[in-house]
Design a protein that fits this description.
GO terms for molecular function: oxidoreductase activity. There is one protein chain. With 247 residues, the chain is an alpha/beta fold. It has one domain: 3-Layer(aba) Sandwich (Rossmann fold), CATH 3.40.50. The protein is 46% helix and 16% strand. The chain is built from 9 helices and 7 strands, in the order E-H-E-H-E-H-H-E-H-E-H-E-H-H-H-E. Strands 3-2-1-4-5-6-7 form a 7-stranded parallel sheet, with helices on both faces. Helix 1 packs parallel to helix 2, helix 1 crosses helix 9 and helix 5 packs parallel to helix 6. The radius of gyration is 17 Å and the shape is globular.
């Protein structure tokens, strides 16, 4: 197992990509702290992990709230004896609109959770990892953090920020036994895409060279690789998992 004897924290792991990551890390031997604001969904993630024979515990945390974020690392230490791995996955979508029509509340929400939330979590994680001399982090970014996102500027701005934060943190901690990377998913078959009309889904698929939507498990596999010792000489990377879209 890749993570036997280690503890991982996965934010927004009540469903979708976060749940797939949490289950993958648990299958690879990690004890997993499941964090979300959706208590029932997170409890289901814990149940699924335990059903698979893994170990998990849930802590409610809104990553945009610094006080709630500050409880995550201590909870991992108290529950499982430490923290070795972290995945910052929390994010929100946005209603499509041109820049001039974006409402301030939509802008603040889009930056407050994916960007500020990742920043707050990363601060706590890096302080802990620096103290123990090792740790690995994966931030979940997006293709929207690499290329333009017309009509989705708040979302794109937040994910560009996550990418910048990732590479800056990676360089600052590279000599401290800490690695910080990001995964940039393309179109993934989660709740938002599943709810689209068939013709709209077909439009997404038509833009993907591999001619299929990604699965949450695709992101989980890439994340597990970057967290593992198989990626021991990799830091500051933004790994696209997009079926060839960006290429």
């Amino acid at each position: 197992m890749l993570f036997a004897g280690q503890t991982a924290l996965v934010t927004a792991s009540g469903a979708g990509i976060g749940r797939a990551i949490a289950r993958k890390l648990a299958r690879e031997g990690a004890a997993v702290v499941v964090s979300d604001i959706a208590d029932d969904a997170a409890a289901e993630t814990v149940r699924l992990i335990e059903q698979d024979g893994g170990k998990a515990a849930f802590l409610h945390a809104d990553v945009a709230d610094a006080d709630q974020v500050s409880r995550l690392v201590p909870f991992a230490i108290e529950t499982f004896g430490g923290l070795d791995l972290a995945v910052n996955n929390a994010g929100v979508g946005a209603m499509p609109a041109p820049v001039q029509d974006v409402e301030r509340a939509a802008w603040d929400r889009a930056l407050g959770i994916p960007l500020t939330g990742t920043f707050l979590c990363l601060q706590e994680q890096l302080r802990h990892f620096r103290g123990q001399g090792h740790g690995a982090v994966v931030n979940i970014a997006s293709l929207a953090g690499i290329s333009a996102t017309p009509r989705l500027s708040p979302y794109g701005a937040s994910k560009h920020g996550v990418v910048s934060l990732t590479v800056s943190a990676a360089l600052e901690t590279a000599d401290q036994g800490i690695r910080v990377n990001a995964v940039a998913p393309g179109a993934i078959e989660t709740g938002a895409l599943e709810s689209l009309p068939p013709e709209d889904k077909e439009g997404y698929v038509a833009q993907i060279p591999m001619r299929r939507l990604g699965r949450p498990e695709d992101i989980a596999e890439a994340t597990a690789f970057l967290l593992s010792e198989r990626a021991a000489f990799i830091t500051g990377v933004v790994l696209r998992v997009d079926g060839g879209t960006e290429a």
